[in-house]
Amino acid sequence: MAEFEGFSKQYLVSDEGERAAVLVTSGSYVLFARQYRLLIDNVSLEIPGGRVDAGETPEKAAIRECYEETGVECRNLRGLQSYYPGLDVTFNPTYIFHSDDVVPTSVARNARSLWLPLYVCLEMISDGKIQDAMTIVALLTYSLDICRGVKIKNKPECGINPVCTHRRNCTVLKGE
């Protein structure tokens, strides 16, 4: 039972545990895992991620999930965003990292992974083709970081933000 300013309500909270994911980039390209999702009865393009196992840090879980889902090994993760997908009745803290330090591996998961230019990813969000909330949060946060001038290796400054002064020269938006 929760009480707040004279209002009381009983909540049943679902504990789904922690989740972690990583937005992997190479130049202006973003790595995606192709995942079948029952709720949409279709394949979803998502950044690699999943549950944080017992005794595992969110960063280690993101690295593990990336390798399991795409065959790509990433290093030197930096925190990109952390959030709760819903603040009402689901406990599911989510941690998103970024890595542009990719280690070539002999594991090929070409059928399940895909590299797309950032500008295509942003168009796919707008067109409703990317529907996964964690992926949308990661792509938009990363785009904002570019606009803010956060030092991201191999990333040009750009104008994802419509008032950004670099917009007319934005290689990420134009796909150059």
Count the DSSP helices.
Answer: 4
Mean pLDDT: 82
Low-confidence stretches: 153-176
Order of SSEs: EEEEEEEHEEEEEEHHH
Radius of gyration, in Å, reads 18 Å
- Give the helix/strand class: alpha+beta
- Strand percentage lies at 25-35%
Helix content: 10-25%
Distance between the termini: 55 Å
Query: Sheet with the most strands?
Result: 7 strands, mixed
Shape designation? globular
Count of individual beta strands: 13
Structural commentary:
The structure is a single chain. The chain has 176 residues and is of the alpha+beta class. 24% of the residues lie in helices and 33% in strands. It has four helices and 13 strands. The strands form four sheets. Strands 4, 5, 6, 7, 9, 11 and 13 form a seven-stranded mixed β-sheet that branches. A two-stranded antiparallel sheet has the order 1-2. Helix 2 packs across helix 3. The longest helix is centred in the last third of the chain and has 16 residues. The radius of gyration is 18 Å and the shape is globular. The C terminus is likely disordered.
Topology:
Blueprint: E1 2-4, E2 7-9, E3 14-15, E4 19-26, E5 29-37, E6 42-46, E7 49-51, H1 58-70, E8 73-75, E9 78-83, E10 90-91, E11 94-99, E12 101-103, E13 113-117, H2 118-126, H3 133-148, H4 171-174
Parallel strand pairs: 3-10, 4-11
Antiparallel strand pairs: 1-2, 4-5, 4-7, 5-6, 5-13, 8-12, 9-11
Helix pairs in contact: 2-3
